[in-house]
Amino acid sequence: MLSRAHPRYESLVLRDKIVKASKEGYLADSAMIAHGRGEAFDYLLGEETTLPAKRAMYVTVALMILSKNPVISVNGNTTALAIDEVIEFAKAVNAKIEINLFYRTDERVDKITKLYKDHGYPEILGSNDDDMAYINEIKNPRASASKNGIYIADTVLVPLEDGDRAEILSKSGKNIITIDLNPLSRTSKRSDVSIVDNVVRALPFMTKIVDDLKSQPITYLKKIIEEFDNEANLKESLDLFKIKGEIK
Ligand code: ATP
Question: If you average pLDDT over residues 68-74, what whole number do you get?
């Protein structure tokens, strides 16, 4: 049993979730490495949501509200860390949720499909019985997408995407938004909006601001989207990484 007083409590809780998900068999072997990389970046950020991350999240919510077919793409790590937060955000902005796994196996997809059903979201896309197609007709498993989801989406939010797939998505003409703690990843650099934050903080933050942005005039939402410069925002995010702490 973890003590809440432990200085690394929050981080250890997330580790536990990843370990449990791995034992349940819906994570790829490399999932723990990906989590560890994110954990290290989060450590250097002070495990706090930064101003540029918040700015990118306002733009994200505005984009999701204005989109006709917004979709949230989920993998095993996102599911393990934030399944309820994904569902809540999807409902708040009227987005669909689609499973997309880098190392796709029928078994993992079935397990993740069941988890979403168990958490009250039976309409998950990208399951084994869903109708799939290839983005831009690229015959590559990294380009596969649900015909009712990412294939026809105008905006795709991809927390923790892998770089190869991000490249394919970025050429698809859709608005691509990512949540990735690494501002230097190919995914962050290729996306139209890059949120450098932990998915466990970013998703609830965005759910919280939905009502406020929905009450704003459309012209205001369009304005914050137009004024956003992802490259400048990523540079600002990168500048905030520093080694905090003291050696005594
Ligand atoms: P690239 O996009 O450069 O190809 P990659 O595909 O090698 O990067 P992966 O290791 O596949 O990156 O994906 C892990 C990415 O997800 C890392 O950039 C890591 O920082 C990020 N990450 C891991 N856990 C989290 C988390 N909880 N929240 C946000 N980002 C995370």
Answer: 97
**How distant, in Å, are the alpha carbons of 39, 65, 179 from that of 246?**
20, 43, 29
Q: Does residue 176 have its Cβ closer than 6 Å to ligand 1?
A: no
- What is the mean predicted confidence (pLDDT) over 95-112? 93
pLDDT at 245: 61
pLDDT of residue 112: 97
> What's the pLDDT score for residue 4?
80
CB atoms within 10 A of CB 102: 18
Per-residue pLDDT band at 42 (split at 50, 70, 90): very high
Q: How far is CA 136 from the centre of its chain?
A: 22
Q: Is the CB of 182 under 6 A from ligand 1?
A: yes
CA-CA distances (angstroms) from residue 66 to 9, 180, 217, 222, 225? 38, 23, 11, 8, 10
Buried b (16+ CB within 10 A) or exposed e, 103-118: ebeeebbebbbebbee
| Ligand 1 neighbourhood includes 113 CB (under 6 angstroms) | no
CATH architecture of 51-240: 3-Layer(aba) Sandwich (3.40)
Residue 81 CA to ligand 1 centre (angstroms): 14
